[in-house]
Amino acid sequence: MSMASWMDLPDRFNIADHFLGERLREGRGERVALRHADGTLTYAEVQALADRFGRALLGVGVRPEERVLIALPDGPEFVGALFGTLRIGAVVVMVNPGRSPQDLAALFDYSRAGCVVVDGAVLGSFEAALAAAERHPPLLVVGGEAGDHASFETLSAGPDESLETAATHPDDPAIWLFSGGTTGRPKAVVQTHRSFANTTECYAKQALGYTEDDVTLSIPKLYFGYATGSNLLFPFSVGGSAVLFAEHPTADLLFEQIRRHRPTILINVPTMINQMINHPAAGEQDLSSLRFATSAGEALPAPLYRRWRETFDVELLDGLGTAEMWHVFVSNLPGEVKPGTLGRAVPGFDLKVCDDDGAEVADGEVGRLWVRGDSRALGYWQSAAKTAAAFRGEWFVGGDLVSRDAEGYVTYCGRSDDVLKVGGKWLAPQDVESCLMRHPAVAECAVVGVENAAGLTKPYAFVVARGEAADLEEELKRHALEELEAYKHPRRVIRVEAMPRTHLGKIDRGRLKEMAPGDG
Predict the structure, then answer these.
(1) Strands, DSSP E only, in 8-63?
(2) Domain boundary residue, one of 144, 165, 191
(3) Which of 35, 79, 153, 368 is the most exposed place for a label (fewest CB within 10 A)?
(4) Is the pLDDT of residue 23 over 60?
């Protein structure tokens, strides 16, 4: 189906059928769909597992359009639960199974979930959440003892029976995603069946050229929309296969997975890129199976990109996506990379850079990013005011500040709530971070604005150092003063063992501000 036809999708359209059922009708049922620690699953086996989950969810009373929280580690059961939920016409809400009981209780109430699919290994946290929540959705426990709750294994036992896919509409809600801001409570973004089909066509197929021979491996977990697409829906759309592992990713584990599965596409993030190139045995690793790697979630500094290329000789494609547009809509592409930029608009999406009044700014000037395309969400759950502010006609207007050059390459300048005004001038934290990252003693850094005793905002740098660098603070201040305008240099440099992270793994800048010493 061509991009031009997405607006003309049939009234009956369900992405469980689009990404899975169609592969069986194409005769690809025996192709390997999933690769994991215990072996492989074919497309036919994934379909059968999805049917089992669909029947189990119906068995606990889930109805069409109700939300189903999926709180499972990456593995076949996550995939089966996702497609099973969609097949019965319910709405997927993907949850990090490691969230605290307090966070989970709030999510139970916020989502009004009809069921929570939970891994038996973390059942205790979810029972604690039930005790604290006002709403008490049934738990469907996968693996282990279910206690007083429904057991997936019990409810799905018996002969396999084909499950009819619900007759959903392209514009019906399909999956909730959570906005990945670096401060404040995440908002639920309600995304439609249409969005997932559209970006797959525009980005995965047209821009990146996914094929049935691709094997994907992801650092982010499947509950993160970046991975849901790149490491599940995208390979499934062409009959490829995805590698899944439940463990927390480390550089050692990633190298092991690459040796074992020989992926062709690596879905990466700047934090792990940094860890991989700094690994003592980085130069000994064979990444020759990779056609390319992608990066998203946070801006990729040009020095980090160059070190990756020098270390592994694998193309690295930085890009930007949002939950509100589901996935990546601006990206560097193979053979067209401009280091330090996010690339250009993905085919099928339009971008513009505007001032606060909505007027487009000149090339090279910083403004707010506007984007439109057929992956635009319906809005934020239970937040009409924020929906009205961000969704303006065909356009989504978020908090990302960018500039665009004459060739259309977009450079990320920060979030509107992160950009600082220092001495009457605007400062993008990324400028300072890129400068500090060029210093050999810096492994990772983040810059935030901190008010001093006089109420003036000053840039503070938080740094994860390599080794035992002495007098690092004064050394990095001098380094910044040599490369940047004086007002941009960090007034304090604070060493930390590791950066605090949000639920999506991004640096938690709000937490860094709280950690800043109050002696500015």
Answers:
(1) 32-36, 39-42
(2) 191
(3) 153
(4) yes
